[in-house]
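User: Need the bound-state model for zinc ion:
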Amino acid sequence: MDTTVAYFHPFFHPETVKRDFEQIRSVGASNIVYAIQEQEEQRLSRDLERGLRQAADVGLKVHLSLGRYGNLFAGPVLMPSWYTFHHPESRVQDRHGRYHSMSCYNHESFRSWLFAEIEHHLTTYPVHGIVLDEPRGPDVTCFCSVCRALCPDVMDLEHFRRRSLIEFLGELFACIKRVNSSLKTTIVLLPQDLDLLDELITIPHLDTIGCHLFWQLLHEDISMVEKWGHRVVQAARQYEKRSQLWLQNYNLDQGTEELLEDSFIQIQAADPDEIACYYYWRNNVDPERVWQETRNLLRRVPRRQLHWRTTASHIAIPQMPKLDPASEI
Ligand SMILES: [Zn+2]
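Assistant: Bound-state model below.
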């Protein structure tokens, strides 16, 4: 089982980043998710490059999350999409003619821009893949001129919206694989969007399907963690995709903090390929205690070598960078 940790902190202070990455590595994590906002890169390119190299230096693979691009994905900062702001004509329009604050993925100009951005990041920085975080589902049927031209049958527009979402995601992942076929593609869903699973698993260039098992945030019983988890793992296995289950180690008060172990055990019981969580993420009553508890739990994760798949080649054993025990704080 692999461990992935979301690192939603700035790269400005290299010493702090070094300490954080060493801590993350020392709990056995092999991947981090780092989120970028679309307007960020032009101002932070040196910080981005240095931070990403620091991750590589300690053996962490970086998966870049497209924070709120086109307002279609989630992101750590509640900042609207620059593209959508500058291209209001690209917005989704509902049956009453009202505009919604996200770009319609059927606009060719939006796709071209998005795919060019992705290609730029993948060819400029040392990243291992792209994450789509909580993509907006087909909840609002779009009646924009592009959608109506592509689907003249108005009665079919609702289904067209869903079909075209899967087609759009398929094209996006294919774009990533065209840059480099070894790059990894991940999509992470909210539990309420799990009805998309059956269609998502058919996308050939999608490698990993994740789910945010945020029971407390979603006001659900903790027993849902295992139920959601099993559903994702089963679906992923069916099409030989990887599964990634997220532990909610944020927004916890003392009462819910005590249930962190319980939710972790439920995730383990679902037996995913990857377990994921956050490094010091927001709104915990006691941030230090939550991270310490998270570290203790992550140390129980069976290490990758035990589950290594033999599809690779004659090079049997993967080289894992050595960890310096002294680096653990
Ligand atoms: Zn549309």
